């Protein structure tokens, strides 16, 4: 594994950064342009954005999280940080294993975040896309897309934080 470590580190950080960038660009770059559309086509355009973004973001995030998990598993176990008195627990440093594990957990957090926090919004927007923008309450498509954008922004930041923790682990 030692000879593959630099390759796995590079891939995992790069893949998570790409997942975060793709996710964030949906909200920061594409969504403002979509919000100029009428509600009937807005839901359909959102669905196109969602369908085209889900595969690369999920693939990159989960393959990166698997890489971070493998790096965490193979990271040297800290013997114990010794303080001046010779007792463990001092020093305030964070182990490489902990950083990789946290990066992996945040990357895998994409799924529960999406299902639990975004699931209702995704379902309603998907319904509106298939019914021509007329969901349960037809006047709120724009508000739903804006809410999705805020939730998606937070999800992208979570992925970016995962990449940052993974990068930190690489240099510790």
Automatic annotation (TrEMBL):
<keyword id="KW-1133">Transmembrane helix</keyword>
<keyword id="KW-0472">Membrane</keyword>
<dbReference type="InterPro" id="IPR013901">
    <property type="entry name" value="Anthrone_oxy"/>
</dbReference>
<protein>
    <recommendedName>
        <fullName>DUF1772 domain-containing protein</fullName>
    </recommendedName>
</protein>
<keyword id="KW-0812">Transmembrane</keyword>
<feature type="transmembrane region" description="Helical">
    <location>
        <begin position="54"/>
        <end position="73"/>
    </location>
</feature>
<feature type="transmembrane region" description="Helical">
    <location>
        <begin position="12"/>
        <end position="34"/>
    </location>
</feature>
<comment type="similarity">
    <text>Belongs to the anthrone oxygenase family.</text>
</comment>
<dbReference type="Pfam" id="PF08592">
    <property type="entry name" value="Anthrone_oxy"/>
</dbReference>
<dbReference type="GO" id="GO:0016020">
    <property type="term" value="C:membrane"/>
</dbReference>
<feature type="transmembrane region" description="Helical">
    <location>
        <begin position="99"/>
        <end position="118"/>
    </location>
</feature>
